[in-house]
Amino acid sequence: MENKSSPRFPLLLRVSRYIRPIVGVIIAIFLAWQLYSVIVVQHNFSADTWVRFGLSGLILGGMYALIAIGYTLVYGIMFMINFAHGEVMMLGAFGGYFMLELLRFIPMPTSANPNLNFLNAYPIVSIILAFTAGISVSALAGYLLEKIAYRPLRKAPRLILLITAIGASIFLQNLAMLLFGPTRKNVINPDILDRGAGWTWMVSGNPVLIPYTGVFSLVLSALLMIGLYLVVQRSKLGRAMRAVAQDKNTASLMGVDVDDVISKTFIISGVLAGAAGVMWDIHMGLVNHYIGFLPGIKAFTAAVMGGIGNIPGAMLGGMFLGIIESIGPAALGIDFQLKDVIAFSILVLVLIVRPSGILGEKLSEEKL
């Protein structure tokens, strides 16, 4: 029997191609007018305040980008969204926190300072050890997630994997709450990364503090992103990852160990999430079982914005989202408590106007 409704779908697709650009233009005009009203007409904030917003956004954006790359790597290999990735970042944050606490209680007294501890006696070594602990915990968590939760379901329908990822996220949250307690814990940095210290930059006659922790996090984020990009593009493992992402069966026939590549992909995504978690410790100074949820969802938004499956897109999306989240409430003249609403509204708008993301590409039917 002929389906008379089927010809409607090509028509709807053609119409949607014209509607999406129109919606995008309308939104762009509205945002431009709102920015003009707030910045030029109302002039609610001075130049130094905008610089502070921008710096805060860049620092947050670097962390979002690292977490977003984890989503992108896993999606590129397995075509699934690992919604437990934020909790992997949270576990890395706890690993870094406990290492810093351990080093803080190791006495290293001197005649000049009898109360000196290892944390401040060897600050660079302490920071390296904190990152080593956080990265190791997150890498192990990513490996075990793939091995225990995802590998047995690899040939299951996509929805089953999605539900499993959400279940793994809830499980890890509650496990961390039971192990570490529900209260927030204050992270104490070495003195060289004191959160109240930094360089002073004069903008419009007013001082703007550029914090040491923020610069450290931003520079390290950039180095890690560059390093990952080089690994993916230049190394043997990177070629294997790209081959598996393109076609698992063909890559297997060419001698690529698909299971090993997938496991290493989860380990690499865990390494990046763990590094972001320790940066969160150092810059934000607070850690609890829930800190991975919102950054994880926002990083997913950044990955979609940049183009899910595209590593440069995830980097760009993370930085862009951090800046928008920081300056958005001031630019739109709304309450700063609504910054999360802005982030998720961007996700909806990107899916409406450009579903493939800023640097994304149209997916084949096999990937869909």
Tally of structural domains: 1
Q: State the helix count.
A: 13
What's the CATH class, please? Mainly Alpha
Helix content estimate: over 70%
Runs in which pLDDT lies below 50 for 5 or more consecutive residues are 1-9, 362-368
Number of strands: 4
Task: Describe this protein's structure.
- This protein is 71% helix and 4% strand.
- The chain has helices at residues 8-42, 47-78, 85-104, 118-121, 123-150, 158-180, 212-234, 236-246, 248-253, 258-284, 293-306, 311-332, 339-353, and strands at 185-186, 198-203, 206-211, 286-287.
- The chain is mainly alpha-helical.
- It has 13 helices and 4 strands.
- The model is unreliable at 1-9 and 362-368 (pLDDT under 50).
- It is globular, with a radius of gyration of 23 Å.
- Strands 1-4 form a two-stranded antiparallel ribbon. A two-stranded antiparallel sheet has the order 2-3.
- It has a single domain (18-353), classed as Orthogonal Bundle (ABC transporter involved in vitamin B12 uptake, BtuC).
